[in-house]
Amino acid sequence: MKVITANQVASLIQDNAYLGVGGFGAFGAPEELLIAIAEAYKWKGTPSNLTIISGISCGDMTKDGRGLNHLRAPGLIRTMIAAHVGVPASIGNAIGENKIAGFMLPMGVYDNLLRAKAANRPGFLTKVGLNTFCDPRIDGCKVNCLAKKCDAEIVRLMEIDGEEYLFYKTFPIDACIIRGTYADEDGNISLKEEALIAEQLEMAMATRNTGGKVFVQVKEIVSSGTLPAKEVHIHHKFVDYVIVAKPENHPQGFDNPELRWELTGEKRVPLESIPEMELSVRKVIARRAAQDLENGALVNLGIGMPDGVAMIANEEGINVTLSIESGTLGGVPVGGLGLGASVNPDAIYHIADNFDMYDGGGLDMAFLGAAQIDKHGNVNVSKFGSKCTGPGGFIDITQSTKKVYFMGTFTAGKAEYEIKDGEIHIVKDGTGIKFVDQVEQITFSAKYARNNDQQVCYITERAVFELTEEGFLLTEIAPGVDLQKDILDKMEFAPVISSNLKTMDAQIFS
Questions:
Q1: In DSSP terms, which residues pair with 12 in a beta bridge?
Q2: Which of 114, 333, 493, 496 is 20 to 30 A from 1 via CA?
Q3: How many folded domains does the chain comprise?
Q4: CA distance linking residue 73 with residue 79, whole number of Å
Q5: Domain region containing 331
Q6: Does residue 277 sit in the same domain as residue 313?
């Protein structure tokens, strides 16, 4: 192991390299190394034409901010192979605008491909992705024209004992940039202050075992022998170079520059200190979703609107265990940019281990967002026009959980609501239609769900729907809402209306 500077790292990455980049959203970004690579390209024009390999790509939900956004200059990135690119918005936009070739993978598949690469296996066999855009009969994980023009095929359909599977192929990794908290003088890496255990170990093994170079950004170097063995997450045999970052380039997370031990499990804080949600359309949707929570259930919460379910469960003392795809289990998930971390977690798993549990059917329920829903019950959360985000763990979760709930406002765009006296009134509606004839991209397949006898529900502030054999069924309507004007006229298709249409509980709107 050698200690070098971030500028030296940039000079060691070749043009056209396959570069693994660690991190999960606002957490774990190798920020100093990303800045150095961007600066090297700006002044020297190298490294260029990179293929970036990433999971939930690191960023701060802006177009010109931190994380992978630093690599936004045209010509720096040629191809992205990732699970999610929405948090570094400039990269997601570049893929959506066909400036970077985009291959999007389910998160659990991505993690298992790193493991397969580390073990020198050719790929990963799974049912995850069948009947979605990942299926080669649809898009084969290719999300734009540049990707579709490539000769590379990263997934193919296989049949084993009469059942369909997808085989995802591994990819080369010439180098990777990841981060930890501490390195000792031998190069052993600790993640002690990290809020998440992302794919640092899997990426380091996949890179080193196949001849690539592993660069690790840390906060500090400590003496040999001072890191307890249980705190060594990456052994020095899998580390080539260590870089000590400036403090401003090594925050615990982009939303919390100060170290929060309650996110690491080292300390606990009173949950009463978490403020309650104000009564809003977001709280209305979360309350309706929380009504279906089952006592003692293991529940996954997705990105965005679903994190409100955690707040309601905490406010109302509902006894469930909340799980986030980032690997935290228990506690109260953090919302907004801090998504992925949890306050007072019971456990923090490796993300790859967490998805093994998900794929095996370990979840009882899952609550996820929905941006587009069509007449078949398919859901799109991964691509809209010139905006591309990718699926993250959405496909793994929705195809492996028996009870799946999709949450979101009924329309898209700026809207105004009046919520009082047990009713909701739409003062100004959003102009975007979310219930469309056909989704732009299939991230959740209703066909797959029906074939697997899954229970699927769609929750909005004004209506609740279910996926049934009879079709897309309207089962509940909010008090204060007009069925024709506020619901049916705002859909591109006509749902089946239940003969037992119910009014949503007025307490939700009080």
A1: none
A2: 114
A3: 2
A4: 13
A5: 273-509
A6: yes
